[in-house]
Amino acid sequence: MDRDAFIRTLAEEGFPEPVLVTREAGVMTEHSHPFEAKALIVAGEIAISVAGEERLYRAGDVFHLGAHVPHVERYGPQGVQYLAGRKG
Predict the structure, then answer these.
(1) Of the residues 15, 25, 34, 70, which has the fewest C-beta atoms closer than 10 A?
(2) Are strands 71-87 and 53-58 parallel, antiparallel or unpaired?
(3) 68, 82, 71, 62: which is closest to 27 by C-alpha?
């Protein structure tokens, strides 16, 4: 998905303006967020594990996590940069 289409989709789904997030290579141990998140990968890659199932996302991919969902984030060797919409 391209950036403009992603931003339009977020608005249609009631998300506020997205924020740009940059993470260095590494791992964020299991945690959850008090908000729903939908993000477009802009550069690099991120693997997200939920309930023991890991999925890899690269530039152009979109991931969606519900609020309060425990997960682990693993950032690729070049880190990751993504546009994140958060609501709730």
Answers:
(1) 34
(2) unpaired
(3) 71
CB-count exposure of residue 65 (10 Å: 0-12, 13-18, 19+): buried
Where in the sequence is the domain holding 18, given as residue range(s)?
3-87
pTM for this entry: 0.94
What is the rounded distance in angstroms from the CA atom of residue 37 to the CA atom of residue 57?
14
Retrieve residue 57's tokens: 């996302």
pLDDT digits (tens, 9 = 90+) for 24-83: 999 999 999 999 999 999 999 999 999 999 999 999 999 999 999 999 999 999 999 999
